[in-house]
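I am hoping you can look over what I have pasted underneath with an eye to the fold:
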Amino acid sequence: MRYKLLLVLMIPLFVMNISAQQTAPNGADYQWELVVGGFDNPIQVLHAGDGSNRLFVVEQLGFVLVVEDGAYLPDPFLDISELLTYEVIRGGYTERGMIGMVFHPNYAENGYFFVNYVNRDEDVVVVRYQVSADNPNKADPNSALEIINVGQPLPNHNGGSMAFSPIDGYLYISVGDGGGAGDPFSNGQRKDSLLGKILRIDVDTEPYVVPADNPFVDNPEFAPEIWAWGLRNVWRMSFDRKTGDLYMADVGQEKVEEINMQPASSKGGENYGWNAMEGSQRYNPNTPIPDPMTLPVAEYGHNDGCSVTGGYVYRGENLPELDGIYFYGDYCNGRTWSLYFDEASGEWVATRFIDTGWQISSFGEDEQGELYLVDYKGDIYRLTRKN
């Protein structure tokens, strides 16, 4: 089906500019260097922020493995494989399974971390665990505390990303629209549903409380946990560790993959348009266009990929010329891009960076802010400069 463009919404500030820019990084000068491999369907790499410099690799099958000194420890940090839906255990393609993990900002003191997975009831759940008291490389399996449970009407579009804001310390959770082509239940625009949203909760009170300054907390039409809405399936999102800006990569339906950016100054409540819009293009003519609506800062069509994977703003020390540049990729063809806001032109500039040919399931940071890439086929890479 073809969809008519709503030209009034095509604001130049938000349209992806792919022309070469003098300050855009040249992918020929860099490489994704292998760090460690041999994982089964890895979907995330992250650090604990505890000064140990360990990496943690999350596998869709329900395992979390510790990486030390360039190798992973054979005994898993966490094993929740028996809690997952059966098709994950049997193998074969599925969007379900273990889909995300995040460490509490005060992990070094409290030992808390959170996992996001689809359970045997086919619901998306966020569960808090705690590290073992006598082994820093083992979680306590008996410490589980369910934080939130979101029912899923269909098997796909589960979201899966979680991140703590460096500004307010709250937990942000991406939840997909519940699945099915085109959002058949219009969950992205439903005010009373947690599906198709970014949630914002305070997990320092068990199991959680809704922050008093959430945008819809005083509006009985809305679920109070909602921070942003009108999203299809934000598989990966991240905060800029320096500025607190939130970058959300929303996987598209038929035509458009998009990057949304919410500045740290935001009070929340942004509506990103799905399913009235797919990126900056009209999608469902029967869904009214939200007013107001926030357009993506970058997007690409399905001639350039088919499933966007969000990354991070580079804040490491090894590649200072990349400071402040956001990197993201595509799961289907392994392309990566750089993205930054050009003050002179007032436009966002997205540039093809490195074509990998891998299935990019995620990006990650280490404690120093260096950038990593996860290949779903089993390997973890770090961005380095070519010699």
About this structure: The longest strand covers residues 139-151. The chain has two helices and 27 strands.
